[in-house]
Amino acid sequence: MKFRATAIGFTAIVMWSFLALLTAGSGKMPPFQLSAVCFAIGSIPGLVMLIFNPARLALLKQPPKVWITGIAGLFGYHFLYFTALRNAPAVEAGLIAYLWPLLIVVGSALLPGERLRWYHVAGALAGLCGTFLIVGRNGIDFDGANAVGYGAAFLCAFTWSGYSLLTRRFEAVSTDVVTGFCLATSVLSLFCHLGLEQTVWPATIFEWVAVIGLGLLPVGAAFYAWDHGVKNGDIQILGAASYAAPLLSTLILTLFGFAEPSWRIALACLLVTGGAVLAAQDMFRRKNPARPVAAE
């Protein structure tokens, strides 16, 4: 059961790896407008489930702390991430924001029934080093003039890691509530768009396909899968494995001709994969328990 839930959670990481490619293909739609549209699309599968099974509507009745956590996690993360990108270079902001997997691994020690071991931290740090190679391939230059952007990126990392860890404490809450989180995030993003941006719609069918793909996968199904994974799977493994997202994203961009192969990618593969395997020691041991020695 735990292995299956962890595998489902990992599919979210795989879907997030398509975020850069689909965003690049979505045209020039401003970020908050794109967020509003994609989260609206992402809520559709959940709404369809509720329409065909109205009894599940009762599962949406949750304490305020559940709704506050979910909406703050999804909307707060994207609001802070877009703010970081507006006020700091994308490379530095992205690298700071991607501290969240390490924060999940370390913070998991505070969860009931979890124990933080050296290989969990080592695996997450290896993944962080791999991410550093990918994200910082063109150089990194932290400038004090971008302090607002850096601060938003740090808050971004703490927001998503905090959301993921708190979600684990709501393991009895149905994943159906993610539909409500997506709808609320869409509405709040729309308000931000109307107040901060000019409306720009996709110009081609290909761009519309990319936007729909974003809404159905990395900004849709991925959040349902992540919710199930962190509630029922191994959150420490998922935290360390999350560093695979920027690596897989770079490999996908390379495959589609948006990036060039390099030694950095190869080394990042080793670091991220090795880190994930190291962090997953407990799961490997559970799947391959020592065989008892037969009595002579």
Question: How are the SSEs placed, and which strands pair?
Answer:
Blueprint: H1 2-16, H2 19-24, H3 31-42, H4 44-52, H5 64-87, H6 90-97, H7 100-107, H8 118-135, H9 147-169, H10 177-196, H11 205-232, H12 235-241, H13 244-255, H14 263-279, H15 281-287
Helix pairs in contact: 1-11, 1-12, 1-13, 3-10, 3-11, 5-6, 5-9, 5-10, 6-9, 7-8, 7-9, 7-12, 8-12, 8-13, 8-14, 9-11, 12-14, 13-14
Textual characterization of the structure:
With 296 residues, this protein is mainly α. It has 15 helices and no strands. Helix 5 packs antiparallel against helix 6 and helix 7 runs antiparallel to helix 12. The longest helix has 28 residues, at 205-232. Residues 288-296 have low confidence and may be disordered.
Say how many strands there are: 0
Into which percentage range does the β-strand content fall?
Answer: under 5%
Element pattern in H and E = HHHHHHHHHHHHHHH
The largest pleated sheet is described as:
none
Give descriptors for this structure.
single chain, 296 residues, disordered C terminus, 0% strand, globular, mainly alpha
Question: Quick gist of this model?
Answer:
With 296 residues, the protein is an all-alpha fold.
